[in-house]
Amino acid sequence: MRFLIAIIVTIPVFSLAQTGGTAGYQALDLVNNSRTAALSGNTISIADGDISQFFQNPAILDSISNGDIFFNINPYFADVFVFSGAYGFNIKGIENLSVGLTYIDYNDFRRTDASGNSNGTFNAQDYLIAFGKSHRLGPISFGVNLKILHSSIDSYGSTAILGDIGGIFRVKENWTIGMVIANLGGRITNFNELSTAKIPLDARIGTTFKPEYMPFRFTVTTTNLSERNVVEQSGSQGRSNEGIEKVVRRLSLGAELLLSDNFQLLFGYNHKRKQELKLSETSGGAGFSYGLMVNIKRFELRYSRAVFHAAGGSGFISLRTNLNDFKSIL
Known about the structure:
The chain is 12% helix and 52% strand. The chain is mainly β. The strands form 2 sheets. The protein has a 14-stranded antiparallel barrel. The chain has a two-stranded parallel ribbon with strand order 1-9. It is globular and about 65 Å long.
């Protein structure tokens, strides 16, 4: 409990430090697994043995099994591809460890001179390597992620070392509360002396619960708690509406329809995404997401789709299994 109280006390301190500036390092912002994508893009309180969730909150690692592994592919927009994976393991005397990788390939860009003449191509990538560890004390578990991030554009690059601190409080069997402060740390090298990109520090609190007699599991997450204002000022917006927007834009909602242990449907809604990416005439479904989970023998396969704009959305495919299940075959 002291750990969770410390997080609550620390949040206002970071909120004072993170006003203004331009965020960079997209590997920290993009969703890297299908389940989170389907549940609105933010999940920090799901602690049911899904190793893909350790990217969101390292405290969940006490629920995974040695040998758990998952892979995810996300064909993003404009020929951008996002690949990610994670592996859970134990070493002698140390349990609940994991290592994960997120790789973003922005594909090739055309290089031109000052006159617009073509001069070959260049590419850009982001790499994020994460090492996680958790520890459980009764109903409370806490964890840390150490993250090494490198972003490169042509011959320019920037590297940062960051950390996440997370906690999970198991209120009862089907009710968990999660807290995370993400992206603590700093930059080691910058693209150049003129770069103003900032690391997107974030503080989040969320809960996941399943009503006893319902086949649904709900996830509610509050995000951007380190930012004072997530609503752009608008002369046409009344104070009451703006106040509501400041609250609602911090909420991400998700629901899982638990049809069986082998088949589930998932739904999500992200109001901030809808408001920021909708057109003036229509939202085109922006902010909504959905997906499904199919469990076939040793494999858990997930597919989800998140709608970002009236022009379309992005699909996510994830595969999760445990390598120890194949020892008898190997």
